[in-house]
């Protein structure tokens, strides 16, 4: 009788201890789960985005969404504030989080070229060095394009601002070996030939560029972040002075 009583008490004690341990475990698991569910606001893609899309064009294609912290990978972006000038390195699909690794400098994608923004097309122009800053125009630059015509009345006008250069093809520089010129290594090398300059524009603008190249002359001016953009009148000989 006594042994049965002791056995019952031991079983009861084990049950109580087990219940306490189970309660502690469940509470710890709940705390861990709550920590993992801590919401974090990240940018999520809402529609298909092709590779080469500029960060400026992503505004309407992503939205801020609260996700559990445990589901947010390293490098997930919370805003586009620090991504100016970058483009998507790959195509993005709806529902995926926007990662910093997906946005890169355009020059990192393919040497000598940059992606064509969505909706635009490429057109190539053959231009002599003096029309492309002595050959210093590079892929990724943004330029202003001017055009001049001699027929009927000589005139020069601004054609477009904010033209993206997507590719530049130049002849290789001649070897300097044995030149014996003794010029300073810091001197700017003189251009030796024309270059193919490829730009991205819509079809209507491309038609204007082709017309200007066929029947007039084109000049490119490289823009900077601080370039002031105005709408100057067409310059003619009579109005030059």
The main sheet comes to: 6 strands, antiparallel
- Overall average pLDDT: 80
How much helical structure, as a percent, in the residues? Answer: 10-25%
Question: What's the number of extended β-strand segments?
Answer: 10
Shape: rod-shaped
User: What is the chain-wise order of helices and strands?
Assistant: HEEEEEEEEHEE
> If helices are DSSP runs of H or I spanning 4 or more residues, what is the number of helices?
2
SS content category: alpha+beta
| Radius of gyration, CA atoms, in whole angstroms | 32 Å
Given as residue ranges, the uncertain stretches (5+ residues, pLDDT < 50) are 176-187
Key phrases:
241 residues; Type Iii Antifreeze Protein Isoform Hplc 12; six-stranded antiparallel beta sheet; 2 helices; 27% strand
In short:
With 241 residues, the protein is α+β, with helices and mostly antiparallel strands.
Structural write-up:
This protein is of the alpha+beta class. Among the domains are: 39-104, Antifreeze-like/N-acetylneuraminic acid synthase C-terminal domain (Type Iii Antifreeze Protein Isoform Hplc 12, Alpha-Beta Complex), CATH 3.90.1210; 121-173 and 190-236. Helix content is 20%, strand content 27%. The protein is built from 2 helices and 10 strands; from the N terminus they run αββββββββαββ. The protein has helices at residues 2-36, 203-215; strands at 39-45, 62-68, 87-88, 103-104, 121-127, 142-149, 155-170, 195-201, 217-222, 235-236. Strands 5, 6, 7, 8, 9 and 10 form a 6-stranded antiparallel beta sheet that branches. It has a two-stranded antiparallel sheet with strand order 1-2. Strand 6 (142-149) and strand 7 (155-170) form a beta hairpin. The longest helix has 35 residues, at 2-36. Mean pLDDT is 80; it is low at 176-187.
């Amino acid at each position: 009788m006594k042994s049965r009583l002791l056995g019952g008490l031991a079983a009861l004690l084990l049950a109580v201890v087990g219940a306490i341990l189970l309660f502690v475990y469940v509470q710890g698991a709940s705390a861990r789960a709550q920590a993992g569910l801590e919401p974090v606001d990240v940018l999520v893609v809402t529609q298909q985005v092709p590779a080469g899309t500029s960060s400026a064009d992503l505004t309407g294609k992503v939205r801020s969404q609260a996700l559990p912290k445990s589901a947010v990978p390293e490098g997930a972006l919370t805003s586009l504030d620090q991504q100016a000038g970058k483009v998507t390195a790959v195509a993005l699909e709806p529902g995926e989080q926007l990662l910093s690794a997906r946005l890169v400098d355009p020059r990192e994608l393919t040497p000598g070229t940059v992606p064509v923004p969505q909706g635009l097309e490429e057109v190539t122009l053959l231009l002599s060095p003096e029309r492309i800053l002595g050959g210093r125009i590079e892929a990724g630059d943004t330029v202003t394009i001017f055009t001049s015509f001699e027929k009927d009345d000589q005139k020069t006008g601004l054609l477009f601002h904010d033209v993206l250069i997507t590719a530049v093809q130049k002849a290789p520089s001649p070897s300097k070996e044995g030149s014996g010129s003794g010029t300073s290594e810091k001197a700017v090398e003189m251009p030796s030939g024309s270059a193919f300059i490829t730009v991205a524009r819509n079809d209507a603008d491309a038609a204007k560029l082709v017309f200007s190249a066929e029947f007039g002359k084109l000049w490119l001016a490289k823009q900077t972040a601080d370039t002031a953009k105005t709408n100057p009148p067409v310059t003619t000989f009579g109005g030059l002075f």
